[in-house]
Write a sequence for this structure.
């Protein structure tokens, strides 16, 4: 059946296919000539689009706020009725001088200021601080103060 239909319309199909091929060839040549005539503008357009996309990407990544949300428990108490937790102090083995240094750290004084106030050398204060850090199992002054407040060693 297919041969019968193809045989009767063979000439028409050949003309149709050849005309479609010629039309495709003409459109292809027209497109090529258009590209050749407007090559500079097309290259400039391509570069502009690439740099626009790159600029948007860089701006979005550079302008992202680098914020970190930290949730922290704040212990609020009445400093007038503060009672020092002597049991914890005994468990940790804190000396009176270490307690003085810890209280002065909580006031925000530097090691140099603490040394001047207690009439000792700076190295002595550094030693007291490092022992406090070991006993409270912390790494920084702020952590030491927070831990001491939480344990009831110093007043809030």
């Amino acid at each position: 059946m297919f041969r019968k239909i193809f045989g009767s319309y063979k000439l028409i199909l050949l003309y149709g296919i050849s005309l479609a091929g010629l039309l495709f060839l003409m459109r292809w040549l027209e497109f090529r000539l258009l590209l050749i005539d407007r090559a500079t503008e097309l290259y400039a357009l391509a570069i502009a689009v690439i740099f626009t996309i790159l600029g948007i990407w860089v701006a979005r990544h550079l302008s992202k706020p680098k914020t970190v949300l930290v949730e922290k428990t704040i212990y609020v108490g009445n400093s007038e009725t503060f009672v020092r937790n002597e049991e914890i102090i005994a468990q940790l083995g804190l000396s009176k001088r270490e307690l003085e240094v810890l209280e002065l750290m909580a006031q925000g004084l530097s090691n140099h200021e603490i040394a001047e106030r207690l009439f000792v050398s700076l190295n002595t204060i550094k030693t007291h601080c490092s022992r406090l850090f070991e006993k409270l199992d912390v790494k920084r002054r702020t952590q030491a103060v927070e831990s001491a407040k939480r344990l009831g060693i110093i007043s809030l």
